[in-house]
Task: inverse folding
């Protein structure tokens, strides 16, 4: 659905994006992760046709973002990190304006506006001036506006910025629902827990380039989707080194880190294999205080990718 | 209808200035007419003219109202146009427009027409006051239409310049300041240029030289003064002045559209 090939963008002589490549399949809910200034917003703006790339190419559903921007605008919805609203318009006027801007007229317009109001939870506050809406409601209104023309692709740049926890939970639910309806979603976020909860895959970006983890992967599949590996945190009584040596002998287990009485082991094969590893360690007379199998944590991965660079 | 137009009209008429400005504007013009009448009558009394002609009062009212109206609206034009696009940048609504199916032409046209229409509203609302000069005589309807037409051209060009500045700068304050600077250049510096060139000519009697007049082609007051001269005198200076304004307006519009199409970089 989204093809990005060696994309580059230079701002004032400095590269904001360089040689970045990515492929997102139709129906994916894809996350983009990276520190501030990594190039996430630049990438999303190029896909939304706001910026022209200086190198490489990108396309959505076969339409080149540089050469066919109107086709992209017709099939994609873009929500910036700080979405702007017209404070002096009422909620329904705001949506009506954008419906017309997307060439929706007559019944199509009124249906789209009603659906958008319902989506934003503003059906009973349609005549409320936008300036009187809370931050969360404004965000929902802008997301609803982005959906007016029923885009097949959503490009969301930090959509949870400034939202309180409840609004974030609601946003995650809405994005999941949209994704289940077949909308391909690319979103960037600093809130890793959100991405982990809803995304099928995430890509790492740093300095405008594809960043890779210790295994050389720039795109990782998240446990929420289809990952078959678990990260086990094991606390032992005594020396963790001998426990690590025993764990290493177990098929599919890989010791990632040993620290005092604590070791982190990645085990392929899901909970059954984790249970087998536990049995293996106990059989080898390892005194286990705590055994905590978790999925591969995005935060861990993030630290592995970006922590080593910042340190 | 262009969706931008509907939105712009709705927003502009909801602003307090939507009704405060026309009220103040009409009040000021009424004051000018009253002052012009009493000034003319008092002057006649001071110089012991036997009897003052109504047409003299009519002409004074017409000239004073036209120039004061031009001055007031020139001062207001940047307020409406120079912030039109920067406000979209400031409130971060421009990306929403640029990623919709609106063309840059539609965005520009919506902004241009809504800026200009407010000035036209003020211009039209002053017609009854301007027409008071008819009551005294000495003014032909043609002169009023020429004054209105020339004023309209001037305001359209100033709006186009304001929109160009608005498309170029990120902040309304910068855009407005530069538009006013351009306005000063057009109204004051052109007159200074005229005075300098004229002073370098021989002190011969008669009308100013064409070389000096050229400095005034971009002066709004000069263009509007075509309402006070006979049509036979329009050629060549006023025709060239009209051409100069039209070219300036087209250039400003062209570059504003170009900036707008590239403005995603600022959005």
Result:
């Amino acid at each position: 659905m989204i093809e990005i090939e060696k994309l580059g963008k230079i701002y004032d002589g400095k590269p904001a994006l360089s040689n970045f490549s990515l492929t997102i399949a139709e129906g994916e809910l894809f996350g983009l992760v990276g520190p501030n200034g990594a190039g996430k917003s630049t990438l999303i703006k190029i896909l939304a046709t706001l910026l022209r790339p200086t190198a490489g190419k990108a396309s959505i559903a076969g339409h080149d973002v540089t050469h066919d921007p109107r086709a992209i605008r017709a099939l994609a919805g873009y929500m910036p990190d700080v979405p702007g609203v017209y404070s002096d318009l009422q909620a329904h006027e705001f949506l009506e304006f954008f419906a017309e801007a997307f060439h929706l007229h007559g019944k199509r317009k009124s249906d789209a506006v009603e659906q958008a109001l319902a989506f934003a939870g503003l059906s009973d506050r349609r005549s409320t001036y936008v300036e009187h809406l809370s931050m969360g409601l404004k965000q929902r209104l802008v997301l609803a506006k982005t959906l007016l023309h029923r885009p097949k692709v959503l490009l969301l740049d930090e959509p949870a910025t400034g939202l309180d926890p409840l609004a974030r939970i609601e946003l995650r639910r809405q994005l999941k629902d949209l994704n289940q309806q077949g909308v391909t979603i690319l979103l960037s976020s600093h809130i890793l827990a959100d991405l982990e909860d809803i995304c099928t895959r995430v890509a790492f970006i740093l300095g405008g380039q594809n960043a890779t983890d210790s295994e050389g992967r720039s795109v990782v599949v998240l446990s929420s989707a289809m990952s078959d590996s678990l990260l086990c945190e094991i606390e032992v009584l005594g020396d963790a080194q001998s426990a690590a040596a025993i764990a290493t002998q177990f098929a599919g287990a890989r010791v990632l880190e040993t620290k005092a009485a604590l070791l982190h082991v990645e085990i392929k094969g899901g909970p059954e294999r984790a249970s087998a590893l536990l049995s293996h360690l106990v059989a080898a007379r390892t005194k286990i205080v705590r055994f905590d199998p978790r999925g591969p944590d995005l935060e861990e991965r993030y630290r592995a990718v970006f922590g080593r660079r910042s340190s | 209808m262009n969706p931008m137009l509907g939105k712009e009209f709705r927003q502009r008429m909801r602003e307090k200035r939507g009704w405060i400005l026309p009220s103040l504007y009409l009040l000021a013009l009424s004051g000018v007419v009253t002052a012009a009448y009493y000034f003319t009558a008092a002057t006649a009394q001071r110089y012991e003219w036997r009897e003052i002609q109504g047409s003299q009062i009519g002409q004074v009212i017409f000239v004073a109202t036209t120039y004061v109206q031009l001055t007031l609206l020139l001062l207001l034009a940047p307020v409406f146009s120079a912030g039109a696009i920067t406000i979209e940048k400031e409130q971060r609504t421009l990306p929403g427009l640029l990623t919709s199916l609106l063309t840059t032409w539609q965005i520009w046209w919506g902004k241009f027409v809504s800026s200009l229409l407010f000035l036209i509203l003020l211009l039209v609302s002053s017609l009854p006051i301007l027409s008071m000069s008819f009551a005294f005589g000495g003014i032909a309807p043609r002169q009023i239409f020429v004054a209105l037409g020339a004023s309209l051209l001037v305001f359209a060009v100033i709006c186009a310049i304001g929109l160009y500045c608005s498309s170029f700068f990120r902040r309304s304050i910068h855009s407005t300041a530069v538009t006013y600077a351009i306005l000063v250049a057009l109204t004051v510096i052109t007159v200074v240029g005229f005075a300098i060139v004229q002073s370098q000519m021989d002190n011969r009697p008669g009308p100013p030289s064409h070389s000096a007049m050229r400095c005034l082609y971009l002066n709004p007051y000069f263009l509007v003064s075509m309402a006070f001269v006979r049509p036979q005198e329009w050629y060549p200076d006023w025709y060239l002045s009209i051409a100069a304004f039209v070219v300036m307006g087209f250039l400003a519009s062209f570059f504003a559209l170009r900036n707008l199409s590239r403005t995603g970089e600022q959005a």
